[in-house]
Write a structure and sequence with these properties.
By secondary structure, the chain is an alpha+beta fold. Helices cover 37% and strands 22% of the residues. It has a five-stranded antiparallel β-sheet, with helices on both faces.
Amino acid sequence: MKRSIVMLCSLLWPLAAAEQASTEEERLNFLRTAAVVSSQVQEEGVTHALRATLSLRGSTHDAQIQSIDELWDANEAFDSYKHNVAAYELSRMLGLGMVPATVSREYKGRPASFTWWVDDVLMTEAQRQEQSVRPPEAAPWNRQVLLMKVFDALIRNTDRNTGNVLIDRNWKVWMIDHTRSFGTNNEILEPEGLTRCDRLLLQRLQTLQPSAVAARLSAWLTPEQIGALMTRRDLVVRHFQVLSAEKGESAVFYDYLHKE
């Protein structure tokens, strides 16, 4: 079922908010501490996600709030707000920069995820396809899509759809809504879509230590989920190693991400 969280297009935020939350750490602090002044249920989706306006010291910005935490398929993980936080933290470990800042905090007495409402959204991927809009530069676009496919395979995202892929004014791709991820099934979803991989991402996957992952994600994932995640990591790495042996490194690997 399509569960897109459609962002409003051409939305410009107040200058004060942009100035006071210009870095990732500032955005995270804002999400953790700003007061919720209003909220409304999103029209689309089945998780009853909220769009909320937050305010802190005169600055305002919107956030997506999700508090769902329930079993939706006996063969998969819970449909849980926790997975939004885990996806964000894992993306930071891998240096992707494609998942908006997300924190966990209570809302109306319930634990929830607060995700930064992406600035200057041009359109969703659904809207791009419906309107037959071509990216201004094919190569950067394609490489971001490939990064997304690897990430979704890693976290076993069973609910990636064109509504939860956002495109901002700079044609940067943002991935949102990861509640139906991190299942304990070890298999990779849609391995046929894993055709190319960023070199730096592969290196980071290879050096990803279970102990570091557990230390970073154990508040949001069970040991079984973390174990499955690491098994899928091994399968993804092996997949690209085999592919590069068959087709050659230049046909499989590319350079897009930058060292931090």
